[in-house]
Amino acid sequence: MTSSFGSAPLLVAANRGPLSVEAVDHGEDKISRGGGGLVSGMQAALAQAPGAVWVCAALNPKERSLARQAAAGRMSSIPSVSEALHGEFEVRMLPIDAVTFRRAYNGIANATLWFVLHMLYELPHRPVFDGSWRRQWDSYVRYNRAFAEALAEEAAEGATVMVQDYHLFLVPRMLRDLRPDLRIGFFTHTSWVGPDYFTILPDDVAAAVLDGILGADLIGFHTHRWATDFAACTRAVLDRDPGEAVGVFPLGLDVEALHKRASAPDCEARLRDLREQVGDRLVIGRVDRTELSKNVLRGLLAYRELLRTRPEWLERVVHLVFNYPSREDLPEYRVYVDAVEALAVEIEEEFGTDDWSPLSLEIGHDYPGSLAALRLSDVLLVNSLRDGMNLVVLEGCVLSEREPAVVLSREAGAAEVIGALSRLVNPYDVSRTAVALHDALSEAPASRAKTAARLRADAVGIPPAEWFQAQLDRVRA
Fold it and tell me: Would you say 339 and 363 are in contact if contact means Cβ atoms under 8 Å apart?
């Protein structure tokens, strides 16, 4: 047990920190503050707690090098990084060795736990829990222990520690053993699964994951469904009921910040480009990562079936698809992206004319373009296989200037928020998704406008700063 206390009254632990450092050719390091509502919400809370610390992992060689140079691991001791932090709070970046990080992050967090929680395995072939996999699991344990020890060292007596997501499932229990005086919150941003699928994991690993999470005083989920599935797993695997430790906190939007960013000059320029490209046609918009669980391939199949079975939409609709690259280190993802790109070409070759491109697929980091696409969407398509929440569809409801209709997977957490106002689909059913797209495109403008107004109101939900504060209040109660 740690024999001394640190000074931080509030700590956040997450694999990714609120800033990133990249080496650039022939110049100073590029230092960027994290963006997005979630990061901003947690940063706001930390800034209001003098001495607060965000503990994260160094994600690249440059960050590891700087973290090793930092006095006591604190990044503010490096002048260039300190300027980016503005003195609002401290960042402790852990220089976990590259092999351990790769095995923990790619091998376990992304290629095992993510696959289980999103039911992505092709079960006749994978997973295979062999000796090589066990070495990866040992790295995941070491990775989590490094976080727990750093948090224990930094935390003041009785401090509050908020641990984030599936990369750090073991931290709450490890930290509880080191510092029983702390108040510990844990939030899972992913979906969860029932015991039948969860117990694909080796028995000892399934038990370790659940016991690790149960080390927290508060265990948060986006929806009641995921919270119920988690409780079912703890009862089945550990014969324990988490009881009142489980809480549901659906994350909403920072609407003011979202509108401000979406109306910035770079977004306005991209909006003009897209309007010229689309003309007076209707737009089916989607913004995703090239992530297996997002189900982009079946979304494109549904769009192709729409055009094949409903020829009245030929030359009258354009599907704008903006995808951000994801997990390019994993072979399954590279194969999937290749299949998505090949299908996009097939759709263009089958239906495209000299005057009409039915599909625009962009894979890259075009954030202004993706926001412009949401502003231009008549129909928003999200057909995730599983999703903890899916904030993008909520953003689309708020940003669209065309009174959007929503075609939404019933397996997305957002279905618990806006499902009653959406056309819910089985994400595996391509034909019914095509029908839902046709119905959404066909809806009378007056009817769509009425529904869109309610969608905007429901999509706002709990803004990130309030979402995070609600958890702090609960864990400290």
Answer: no
